[in-house]
Specification:
The complex is a heterodimer.
Chain A: H1 14-20, H2 35-40, H3 47-74, H4 78-87, H5 92-112, H6 116-124, H7 131-142, H8 146-169, H9 173-182, H10 184-204, H11 215-225
Chain B: H1 5-10, E1 33-38, H2 45-56, E2 62-68, H3 73-80, E3 89-93, H4 98-104, H5 107-120, E4 128-132, E5 149-155, H6 162-165, H7 168-172, E6 175-179, H8 184-187, H9 191-202, E7 207-209, H10 219-235
Parallel strand pairs in B: 1-4, 1-5, 2-3, 2-4, 5-6, 6-7
Classes of the chains: A mainly alpha, B alpha/beta.
Keywords (chain B): Chaperone, Cytoplasm, GTP-binding, Nickel insertion, Nucleotide-binding
Subcellular location (chain B): Cytoplasm
GO molecular function (chain B): GTP binding; GTPase activity; nickel cation binding
Chain lengths: ~230, ~240
């Protein structure tokens, strides 16, 4: 009788679900990922334009964040990665946002998967390291893989704007979730690319990591930070 | 591979670093008592915070964290009225969901409190931090990981059936404040009925009726805050 091969389940795969859950209490709910500024400017009006926005963010900021997260999960020095994140984040408003969210992620990660690597980064960056770096380290502490870290970072880059668009435009939530579903093949591609770059970065250093940028997101983040009245912190 | 018994020995407490569960700051000093104020829009939360600050600021070291629905409105009201120096007021942004920031994901509020404690530390530390929620619905309550005690503020003009309707805020808050009692005759609210309904919902938990336009109208709340602070100081001497 032929024997079935043992199913191969990656280590701690379910940690991915915990970390990617929108209810994971690390501050994401207060941020729109640039969607609030794009709604005000008329660039996000409906499900179709939300999808275009999310696609653009995924392949730029999302890819860059996924590379940093995968590299941190793979064991690259988080302080080196934190500098690499600064170099990839020219807008001061987005640097501040990334560090604020990194600090909140650090608090939650130390409560959920405590460990010496997280403690060391928290001590070295008490005001917060860049969020993708902390996320990657949390994935590492949870025992999940660099590819998992890349998936979470890539997904966060589009799930935040989609949720925000529901609140900002009273967009039909089914339509917004369908946007995320249509992006699934590209999410997988971006995560795979980021994880591959992280593998190379183990030998070649952080310059091997993606450095895609979205100038319009940088510019609108700066103007949004100066709005006197807004619903989202970024 | 990372979480085994050895780890639990090294990290016995998965505490969240300045969560309300821990009465001490990292340097070993006692942290400030944290009191949350929640309640529906327009019931007088910010006015109550302002009145508490004015009544207590000469004898106690106070800071305030606001959770506005849109950015800094409440923080700016407190600044304009100069109830505290600007360095003692911080606004947390809530992404259109103030109840999330005070209950489901308290990380931004904990950081705001930590930063205030650090900033005021060199001046002798803080006795009390008031955490004010944005105006929300009757189910909005504070996490026990964020505050030590919570006040729910409603007002007579919002309808005298609110205590009867109950909900987590009215039923479980450590103090229920029924504000704007001076308006009761004009809006047809029955204060006796509100008191009866509140007692039925809350049992022995206290209720304070206030009119902040009256001289020292916030006194019942001030007295309650003083009692809580005395108990907190005695418990963590």
């Amino acid at each position: 009788m032929p024997t079935m091969p043992e199913p191969t389940v990656p280590a701690a795969r379910a940690a991915l679900l915990v970390l990617a859950d929108g209810r994971f209490p690390a501050g994401g709910h207060a941020h729109s990922g640039g969607a609030e500024a794009a709604v005000k400017a008329g660039r996000i009006r409906d499900a179709g334009s939300l999808e275009e926005f999310c696609r653009g963010r995924l392949h730029t900021a999302g890819l860059t964040a996924a590379g940093l997260a995968a590299a941190a999960a793979a064991g690259l020095d988080p302080l080196v990665l934190d500098e690499a994140a600064d170099a990839r984040t020219p807008a001061p408003a987005l640097r501040a946002t990334a560090r604020r969210l990194g600090r909140q992620m650090m608090r939650t990660a130390r409560a959920t998967w405590p460990g010496p690597e997280l403690d060391a980064l928290a001590a070295a960056r008490p005001r917060g390291a860049h969020q993708p770096v902390v996320l990657g380290l949390a994935v590492r502490a949870a025992g999940a893989s660099p590819t998992d870290a890349a998936h979470i970072a890539a997904y966060e880059s589009v799930s935040g704007p989609a949720t925000a668009a529901v609140r900002l435009l009273s967009l039909n939530p089914f339509d917004a979730t369908a946007v995320l579903a249509r992006l699934v093949p590209e999410l997988d591609q971006v995560a795979a690319r980021a994880a591959e770059a992280a593998r190379r970065a183990l030998d070649e250093g952080p310059d091997a990591l993606p450095a895609a940028s979205a100038p319009l997101l940088d510019i609108t983040a700066e103007t949004h930070a100066a709005w006197p009245v807004r619903l989202f912190a970024s | 591979m990372h979480l085994d018994h050895a780890d639990t020995d090294i990290y016995p407490q998965r505490h969240t670093y300045s969560s309300a569960a821990d009465p001490r700051r990292p340097d070993g000093t006692r942290r400030a008592l944290r009191i949350g104020l929640g309640g529906p829009v327009g019931s007088g939360k910010t006015a109550t915070v302002a009145a508490l600050c004015r009544a207590l600021r000469d004898e106690l070291s106070i800071a305030v964290v606001t959770n506005d629905i849109y950015t800094r409105e409440d923080a700016e009201f407190l600044l304009r009225n100069a109830v505290l120096p600007a360095t003692r007021i911080t606004a947390v942004e809530t992404g259109a969901c103030p109840h999330t920031a005070i209950r489901d994901d308290i990380s931004a509020n904990l950081e705001a409190i930590e930063d205030l404690e650090d900033a005021v530390g060199p001046q002798g530390g803080l006795d009390i931090v008031f955490v004010e929620s944005g105006g929300d619905n009757l189910t909005a309550t504070f996490s026990k990981g964020l505050v030590d005690a919570q006040i729910f503020v409603i007002d007579v003009a919002g309808g005298d059936d609110i205590p009867r309707k109950g909900g987590p805020g009215v039923t479980t808050a450590d103090l229920l404040v029924v504000n704007k009692t001076d308006l009761a005759p004009y809006v047809g609210s029955d204060l006796d009925r509100m008191a009866r309904d509140a007692r039925a919902q809350r049992g022995d938990l206290p209720v304070a009726f206030t009119s902040l336009v009256a001289e020292n109208g916030v006194k019942p709340v001030v007295d309650w805050v003083r009692d809580r602070l005395a108990a907190w100081s005695a418990a963590h001497a």
